[in-house]
């Protein structure tokens, strides 16, 4: 590690959050994700002949909910997203809104008879607040046994769902939302695993953009060594 590759600029976090909150490109990507998810969902139901017995697993934050307001707030406090007390307060009292395309997609899944599981690392102690938020925003199938929050690893929560359902689609913004092999893996290993699982992206794994949070945030940059540069 060198100071040139691990230097933190004051505006670095602001750029990431501004892109996530303000750019039309992010909104376009989010719509694109839900459009693709809709195609995959319809195909899965058609192949099965019914939605019964099928399940969707979706992360919540930056996959269904836009939390960029609390990201900006935490940045002004110098906390980043690891300011747990601020995040817990947001879970209880925050006012996130739905990503574009989310409402239509989940209501379609509900009409098709597909079971929806909301799988998130939000705090279990705030489960009632999370359920209230999802309900306030009009999402379907928001009940305690279908909102699976932080406790067992996500891989275990997925396995619980698989006991009684065929998971046909997963939605998330970090790779460990999809498979336990990514959890705790170094970035180099994550890149290799992403190649190994490449056939699943856009098929039954739909990855949403999140420029403001992830295990990559402390990675060393690899600058161009320009000829003659000192």
Automatic annotation (TrEMBL):
Pfam families tied to this protein: Acid_phosphat_B
UniProt keyword terms in alphabetical order: Lipoprotein, Signal
Signal peptide boundaries: none
Top-level taxon of the source organism: Bacteria
Record PANTHER family: ACID PHOSPHATASE-LIKE PROTEIN (PTHR31284)
Name of the protein: 5'-nucleotidase
Organism: Paracoccus sediminis
């Amino acid at each position: 590690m060198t100071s040139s590759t691990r230097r933190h600029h004051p505006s670095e976090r602001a750029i990431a959050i501004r892109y996530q909150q303000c750019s039309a490109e992010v909104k376009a990507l989010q719509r694109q994700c839900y459009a693709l998810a809709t195609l995959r969902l319809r195909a899965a139901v058609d192949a099965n002949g019914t939605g019964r017995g099928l399940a969707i697993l979706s992360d919540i934050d930056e996959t269904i909910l836009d939390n960029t307001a609390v990201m900006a707030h935490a940045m002004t406090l110098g906390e980043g997203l690891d300011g747990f007390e601020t995040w817990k307060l947001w879970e209880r009292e925050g006012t996130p809104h739905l990503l574009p395309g989310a409402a239509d997609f989940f209501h379609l899944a509900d009409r098709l008879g597909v079971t929806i599981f909301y799988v998130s690392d939000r705090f279990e102690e705030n489960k009632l607040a999370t359920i209230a938020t999802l309900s306030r925003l009009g999402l379907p199938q928001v009940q305690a046994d279908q909102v699976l929050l932080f406790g067992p690893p996500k891989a275990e929560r997925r396995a619980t769902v698989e006991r009684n359902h065929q998971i046909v689609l997963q939605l998330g913004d970090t790779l460990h939302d999809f498979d336990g092999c990514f959890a705790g893996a170094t970035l180099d290993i994550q890149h290799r695993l992403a190649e190994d699982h490449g056939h699943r992206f856009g098929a039954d794994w739909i990855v949403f953009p999140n420029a403001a949070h992830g295990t990559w945030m402390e990675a060393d940059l690899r600058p161009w060594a320009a000829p003659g540069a000192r």
